[in-house]
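The records we work with from here on pair a chain with its fold. A complete example follows; check for yourself that the lines match position by position.
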Amino acid sequence: MARRTREEAEQTRCRILDTAEALFSTHGVSRTTLATIASAAGLTRGAVYWHFEDKLDLYRAMLGRIIPNFDTHLDELKAGAAHNPAAALWRFSNSLLRSVTLDARLQRVLQVIFLRTEHVDELAPVQNECIAKMREAHSTLTQILLAAQARGQLQPQVQPVMAAQSLQALHDGLLRIWLADSQRFDLARDTPALLSSLYAGLFKPEVLEQLPPHP
């Protein structure tokens, strides 16, 4: 019985999160109340508050469902970089962007983060947490580019710290544009072409020739 109760509680929690993601994506975070979420999920406000202290707590839980996806990509990048930093980074960029096209929840939550969130008032604390994750990712990209530099893979003029900033901005920018207007380009199909110009500026021609065209 206790196990069933735990399973039911988890199902209810997921139902609340699924509903919140849909409403946030459609109406924006600031215009969506916990009461609205409860009503749309067919639950009482008390049921929502039993699982989540407030909207900030719910928002964090929503982010928590997609963070492992990005952590997995970063872990794979670090592991692959031990053998070939340039190839690992190329695979990382491609797999990161393409993964969003294959996961409806990931698309929905990123749309909420990029296009439907105002980091003010009750959600202000989460902004610093998001910034910390971005800095962590930038640090990882910098380390990989430093490893590539040590192996003689980078163009002479490339500065790893600045290159990491540019690469991170390219990833985020492409995702923002595609999430706002998916008709602009086919992200799943066009990812290598969208990345190629920046990579051509980062890596030596002989290194680029060894990168797989469709990782």
